[in-house]
Amino acid sequence: MNFLSIGCRRVLLYIILIVFSFLFSFPFYQMVIGSFKDNAEIFTTKLTLLPKRFMLDNYKYLFNSLPFIRNLFNSLFVSTITTALNIFFCSLAGFTFAKHTFPGRNFLFSTLLITMMLPGQVTLVPLFILMRRLNWINTYYPLIIPGAASAFGIFLMRQYSLNSIPDDLIDAAKIDGCSEFNIYTKIALPIIKPALTVLGLLTFVGSWNNFLWPLIVINDFKMYTVPLALSILRTSSGAGELIQYGSVFGGATLATFPILIMFLIFQKQFISGILSGALKS
Fold first, then answer.
1. Phi, psi for residue 94 in degrees, rounded to 5
2. Would you state the pLDDT for residue 277?
3. Taking CA 71 as the corner, what is the angle to CA 70 and CA 76, rounded to the nearest 5 degrees?
4. Rounded CA gap, 93 and 87, in Å?
5. Spatial CB neighbours of 258, under 8 Å, sequence gap ≥ 6
6. What pTM does this model have?
7. Contact 83/204 with Cβ under 8 angstroms?
8. Is residue 137 part of a domain?
9. Is residue 34 part of a domain?
């Protein structure tokens, strides 16, 4: 009886998971399918799982109206460089806060935590003035440099390093003559790899979806990232011309696939990092 009850509960759990997976994936499916429909079929009250005719006109309109390949490259370049810099600086700072004692360490870390309480909108105006004085408007620099490190990333790396890297291992490396940077690269980084994956994915997704800050510092269409490019599809139509929502769906589909592919590649490390962080005492 116990075996049957366990089997029934497992079957029920699988059914619930399948239902919720369908509910969460259905909007994404509708977005992909909607990119092959015209406006009339998109706004019909009758639910259709497949379009009457697969149309590539929406994608042609997307690439003819916008330099969308360049926009995809901009987002990919900015997100990749920002993620790499964030992983390096946040892990280095987090490891230093966790495993090194120096004057003012607690004060600096407390100040860092306080900055996490400030809304990002508070810094938009002074940050924009700084970017303008540096002549960085309409360049990649304002999209990358301000996000090269984050208080949350340093906090995450500090907490993970504090619980994961044994002090005895660091002491043994110092006795063997290992330099501080070699301790960081050869000992710390392999141990905190799951946390690095979590930080990398969160940073990449955040940079890829960032809209407000690029809207402020970028005015050139060729420098637009994907969120900005998709936003102007609503204003690119001529007078009296309907908005091509199929093209909007097409752009959103193309913008979603890089994030989906990254998660599929690093999902094991991501889940491992989340679980190991949750299980730390």
1. -65, -40
2. 52
3. 95
4. 10
5. 75, 76, 208
6. 0.85
7. yes
8. yes
9. no
DSSP string, 181-219: HHHIIIIIHHHTHHHHHHHHHHHHHHHHH--HHHHHH--
Token pair listed for 205: 């997704």
Identify whether 50 is part of a domain. Answer: no
The CB density around residue 249, as the number of other CB atoms within 10 Å, is 23
Residue 65: give the domain boundaries. Answer: 56-279
Residue 183 in contact with residue 166, Cβ under 8 Å?
A: no
Inter-residue contact 139 to 220 (CB < 8 Å): no
Q: Decide if 37 is inside a domain.
A: no
174: CATH: 1.10.3720.10
Total domains in the fold of the chain: 1
Read off the pLDDT of residues 186-245 as tens digits, 9 standing for 90 and up. 989 998 988 898 899 999 999 999 999 999 999 988 899 999 998 887 665 554 566 788
- CB contact at 8 A, 156 and 231: no
Report d(CA 95, CA 81) in Å as an integer: 21
Q: What is the number of residues in the chain?
A: 281
Per-residue model confidence as pLDDT tens digits over 167-179? 888 989 888 888 8
Query: What gap in Å lies between CA 117 and CA 236, rounded to an integer?
Result: 38
pLDDT of residue 66: 86
